[in-house]
Design brief:
E3 ubiquitin-protein ligase which is a component of the N-end rule pathway. Recognizes and binds to proteins bearing specific N-terminal residues that are destabilizing according to the N-end rule, leading to their ubiquitination and subsequent degradation. A zinc finger (UBR-type) spans 33-105. Its EC number is 2.3.2.27. Pathway: Protein modification; protein ubiquitination. It is an enzyme of class 2 (transferase). This protein is mainly alpha-helical. It folds into three domains: 12-120, no CATH class; 141-216 and 235-297, no CATH class; 316-371. Helices cover 39% and strands 9% of the residues. It has helices at 9-27, 65-70, 172-177, 180-188, 209-220, 228-231, 236-243, 267-275, 288-303, 307-313, 317-344, 350-371, and strands at 42-50, 63-64, 77-86, 141-143, 150-152, 168-170, 253-255. The strands form three sheets. Strands 2-1-3 form a three-stranded antiparallel beta sheet. The chain has a two-stranded antiparallel sheet with strand order 4-5. Strands 6-7 form a two-stranded antiparallel ribbon. A hairpin with a 6-residue loop joins β4 (141-143) and β5 (150-152). It starts with 8 loop residues before the first helix and ends with a helix.
Length: 375
């Protein structure tokens, strides 16, 4: 007889905390009370697609966090994580039977919004939903920083590196649409795809890659000892192309932290990025990591105005101590109560929790009867 797999209470609490932190990272940077439409095309925000209002076969549309709460409560929503430069569609022409409750005066359409199959609940090159009830393979989904589609790790055409959550990824399709990115990839990207031999130098082994990267940095950054003519801004992309280092142009590409700052920002390259709709790559604050950091900072500021602590400040010293002691007693008793279930391997039910608080109330009444005071 096989032993039944069990999950401890600590495992459940840790998983809940992890999910809460992930949700907070996505949502804390967006306003949950006010429609984002008046802000125009928001640099980055949490978005949702409503399959109840805009079903597959119709026009794609996205709604902001606040509208997902206030205008689409009870609807079937697809969570789109975050997307850049998007203006809330809620209640515009695409929603024939719904008017936005938060910002009803909207243009018929937001012409600069970009849509994908994500808005109909499918992702990756395989165009499958997530989670996929028919997919038994455990696989993480990774977002391309250019097209912002989500792709399965096994469909990226490359080995997914360690600490992928700290890196940005550009899918193979977006790399091929913008071939100049392959030049940057040969010098700046996380090692993963094989690097071809250097055409001009007769080739170097992969063990010399780090030395070569140091040489690239020397080429890119002008020395302060050079003459004024030599120190004039040059095109970094052109310099990298002249080095001749190549990378096999297949599979997705992962980029390390700070890689955007190494892209060329000369006038020619800025025009090239603008024409390709990639100007955001020169903006490090465009990253999801920067968005999440902003959200965490906002959350910490809000935590500084805890309503419970504000209420305690308005009580006298005796009342404060009574509340604190009561809270600590309940916390200790609840911990001991749950510990018994963890020790015996039993499941905590709603009836068990209800019984615990009924016992708490009974003890409070006994203390009131005995002392004539309630706290």
């Amino acid at each position: 007889m096989c032993e039944e797999q069990t999950v401890s209470l600590v495992d459940v609490l840790e998983e809940d905390l992890e999910l809460e932190e992930e949700a907070s990272a996505v949502l804390a940077g967006s306003d949950s009370d006010h429609c984002s439409y008046p802000q125009g095309y928001v640099k980055r925000q949490a978005l949702y697609a409503c399959s109840t209002c805009t079903p597959k076969g119709g026009e794609a549309a996205g709604v902001c966090l606040a509208c997902s709460y206030k205008c689409h409560e009870g609807h079937d929503l697809f969570e789109l994580y975050t997307k850049r430069n998007f203006r809330c569609d809620c209640g515009n022409r695409k929603f024939t039977e719904l008017q936005c409750k938060l910002s009803p005066d909207k243009d018929e359409v937001n012409s600069l919004n970009k849509y994908s199959h994500n808005f109909f609940g499918v992702y990756c090159t395989c165009s499958r939903p997530y989670p996929d009830p028919d997919d038994q393979v455990e696989d993480e989904m990774i977002q391309c920083v250019v097209c912002e589609d989500w792709l399965h790790g096994r469909h990226l055409g490359c080995v997914v590196p360690d600490c992928v959550e700290l890196q940005e990824m550009i899918c193979e399709s977006c790399m091929n649409k913008n071939p100049f990115l392959w030049t940057y990839a040969a010098h700046l990207a996380v090692p993963g795809a094989p690097v071809q031999e250097n055409e001009e130098r007769g080739g170097e082994s992969s063990t010399n890659l780090s030395n070569r990267e140091g040489l690239v940095d020397d080429v890119i950054e002008p020395s302060c000892k050079r003459s004024r003519e030599e120190a004039e801004p040059t095109c970094r992309l052109k310099e990298l192309q002249e080095i001749g280092q190549k990378r096999i142009q297949s599979g997705a590409v992962f980029w390390p932290s700070g890689w955007r700052a190494k892209l060329c920002s000369c006038n020619t390259c800025q025009e090239r990025l603008c024409e390709a709709g990639l100007s955001f790559l020169l903006d490090e604050s465009d990253t999801v990591l920067a968005y999440e950091k902003k959200g965490k900072n906002n959350e910490q500021k809000q935590e500084g105005h805890d309503p419970l602590m504000s209420a305690l400040d308005n009580l006298n010293r005796v009342q404060q101590l009574e509340i604190i002691h009561g809270y600590n007693d309940m916390k200790t008793e609840l911990k001991d109560f749950l510990q018994r279930f963890a020790t015996e391997g039993k499941v905590v039910t709603s009836d068990d929790i209800r019984q615990f608080f009924e016992q708490q109330q009974s003890r409070k009444r006994q203390r009131v009867d005995a002392t004539g005071h309630f706290y």
